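Table 4 source record.
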Amino acid sequence: MTQVIRALESIGDTVILAVRTFRYIGTIPRQFHRLVEQAFLIGYTTLPIVVILSFFIGSVLALQTGYSLKGFGAQDFIGAVVGLSMARELGPVMVSILLAGRVGSAVTAELASMQVYQEVDALRTMNIPPERILVLPRLVAILFMMPVLTIVGNVVGWLGGAVVAAYVPIVGSNWDAYFQSLRNTVQFRDVIDGLVKAEIFGFFVILVACFIGLNTRGGPREIGHSVTRSVVVSLILILVLDYFVTRALL
């Protein structure tokens, strides 16, 4: 029962942090340099791993699908399966998981270090709200960069599937049939639904990372514990939200 109460308190405190943060949304023009810096750290540094992972996810998905459908003579549907899977599910989920491991952990470690070494208290002493300069730029930056990363992941995943369909004999398909199936099946709504998912997942990953980082107590050892907790909570949250957001978008 105590664990449930603590979990509910953490959820409430996280919501309060988000409300306090967006009270300062009008200061974003004056923090443009911080916004650009966070967008660079979130987007550019995450892009290479997104490209690599998405390419091989699309490749493996096409390989498995082609092998399974070959017995039914339905290889021409490989593009449809890969296209819809990447756009609606695998693209936003995998990018969000990468974000939690690559960016969420770094944000938690940075803010936890500032909290442990009393830099956050120094900001409050100078009447500078931590929410304004530490949390707000990161939340706004993720809202800008998450759709970009997801679209890149989708396109690279589709290309990975196309390469396998065209050049792996066991799949038994070709480039033209793959993209014809993809174009006929994947609708603009499917891509938008995936981007909505990505925005929600990314926002909550960064919010959780900021909350856990700013609430770290103790010595330097607690920084590592906070990072681990942030990643675990983010991964669980992504999977839980995935079900409810998918159900709402159907």
